[in-house]
Structure formats: structure tokens, C-alpha cells
Design brief:
Layout: H1 23-26, H2 30-48, H3 65-76, E1 80-83, E2 91-94, H4 104-113, H5 130-140, H6 154-166, E3 172-175, E4 187-191, H7 202-212, E5 213-223, E6 226-234, E7 237-244, E8 259-265
Parallel strand pairs: 1-7
Antiparallel strand pairs: 1-2, 3-8, 4-5, 4-8, 5-6, 6-7
Helix pairs in contact: 3-5, 4-5, 6-7
Length: 268
């Protein structure tokens, strides 16, 4: 699993006796007490930054190449963040730049440009751009079009990846959500038919993937019981969603997210 741990900062405290009588001589323990208080305060701040939704390791770039490209876009547009699962389900921790505002609106046309439609942008309401964001991310992380098709519809590229795998390609492998623990650079995908494709004959499976896929996000981190995944056209921005995971890092069900599959990225 590719991940980045928060840096550990070591604080050393050294006392030296005063060379001459001063007010410190009256209170010899005061400097150490103040330093210890400062250390505990900084430790508390560091601990708090590791919680879900704010700072901590989400401020550190992922080491996986595909995850890093998605992370850069997320940072560029305000770091919109949403937490799912439990009582926090759907809680927007931070809002980002809207697709209808610059510079994101024009950037959406870049995403679509990777799929052959640069004329579409964030104000083209009839053109959801989450699939184009995934295709652009794969392109800019060095994944070839032969390995990942440049199409802007999730069902289309997932069906193509299904075909590639059946033909012997190992660049991307499709897994049921209960079978595989996602890692940075992978895709986590929802679909109205859930993972039923996994138990169908190949022809039916491909049809279900193509016709029922809803959305895919790029995994950035898997930490502390959550899969952190970045997607386009989420909350009208480039958004990091925190999805609950079990002790093995596998996706747990959450309201509004019928998990269809996890796409293992074996290219980078």
C-alpha cells in the first residue's frame, strides 16, 4: 500500500544552570515547565491534525503517481472534502471552487479535451465531467490510451477495462468491493446494480458494467478506517471523499454509495 506517514518531530529540552543569580534562581523549575507545556500543546495539535477531514496526512502528497496527479487538482481548487459513513454521512467539511467559476470552469474543458471534447466546460450543465476527470488523471500520470481509454463516461471505460482483462491485460484488474482492499492510484466505483456483474456470465457482466456504472474516484490514501478518494464533479468541484473501510481496508457500505467494484491500477 502506498502511503505517507505524518512526519515525526522530536523535541529535546536541555537545561543549563544559571551562571549568576537571577530571577530564575527563585523559580528553577519554571523554564522546564513552560517548555513542557509548549511541547504538550504542539503534540495535541499534531494529534488533532490526524483526524478525518482536515490537515494531517491529507496535506502530504501521495507517493503513487496517479494519486498524486488527482491530489494536485484537488489542492488547486480548494480541497473540497466530504465525509461519509455513520452520523457524518455526507458532511461537507470544506467547500471548493465551483465548476461554474474560474479557473475550474476552464479546467473542466481540459479534462474533456483529453476525451476529444475541449468545447465542453464547467458551464456545460448537460455534460457531467467526473469520467473525463478520471481519463485526464490517467493520461497525465503516464497511463497510455491503450491501457486506459480516453472516454468521459464511466461505464464505457470500465467495460473496456473488462474486455482488456479478459483478453489477458494485467494493467488494470477489476475486483468486487468485498474481495479487494483499494490502494492509492486505484479506482473505487459505484453503480446501481452494485457488484452483481461479478456473479454473471461475461456477456451479462459487461452489459451491467456499461449500463449501470455511476461514478469512480481515484484513491489517494487508506488510513484510520477510511478510504480517501478524489473525484471530479463531486459537490460541483474536485472533491476528496472519505469512505468508511473495515479493518482490512475494504470499502464498507454507506448511504448513497452502492459499491460496484474496485479497479486495481497496476501501471503505477
Amino acid at each position: 500500500m502506498n502511503s505517507v506517514d505524518p512526519p515525526f518531530v522530536e523535541v529535546r529540552v536541555c537545561r543549563q544552570p544559571p551562571s549568576r543569580p537571577t530571577s530564575q534562581a527563585l523559580y528553577p523549575r519554571l523554564p522546564t515547565f513552560l517548555l513542557l507545556t509548549a511541547f504538550l500543546f504542539l503534540a495535541a495539535c499534531a494529534s488533532g491534525s490526524r483526524g478525518t477531514g482536515g490537515g494531517g496526512y491529507s496535506d502530504q502528497p501521495p507517493t503513487n503517481r496517479t494519486a498524486y496527479v488527482a491530489w494536485q487538482e484537488w489542492s488547486r481548487f480548494g480541497r473540497s472534502t466530504v465525509v461519509y459513513g455513520g452520523s457524518a454521512n455526507g458532511y461537507t467539511n470544506r467547500a471548493g471552487v465551483s465548476e461554474r467559476s474560474e479557473p475550474l470552469s476552464s479546467r473542466v474543458s481540459d479534462y474533456w479535451g483529453s476525451c476529444g471534447h475541449p468545447e465542453w466546460n464547467g458551464n456545460t450543465a448537460s455534460r457531467p465531467w467526473s469520467g473525463a476527470f478520471v481519463a485526464w488523471t490517467m493520461s497525465h500520470s503516464g497511463v497510455s490510451a491503450a491501457d486506459f481509454p480516453r472516454v468521459g463516461r464511466h461505464g464505457s471505460y470500465l467495460a473496456s477495462l473488462f474486455d482488456h482483462e479478459r483478453a489477458g491485460s494485467t494493467a488494470f484488474l477489476l475486483h468486487g468491493p468485498a474481495e479487494y482492499s483499494p490502494k492509492p492510484g486505484d479506482l473505487v466505483c459505484t453503480g446501481t446494480a452494485g457488484p452483481t456483474w461479478r456473479y454473471s456470465d461475461p456477456r451479462t457482466a459487461r452489459r451491467r458494467i456499461d449500463s449501470t456504472a455511476n461514478h469512480c474516484d481515484v484513491v489517494a490514501y487508506v488510513r484510520s478506517g477510511y478510504v480517501y478518494a478524489i473525484g471530479g464533479n463531486v459537490k460541483d468541484s474536485v472533491t476528496m471523499s472519505l469512505y468508511p473501510a473495515d479493518s482490512h481496508g475494504r470499502l464498507l457500505s454507506s448511504s448513497g454509495h452502492p459499491w460496484m467494484m474496485v479497479v486495481e491500477n497496476r501501471v503505477n
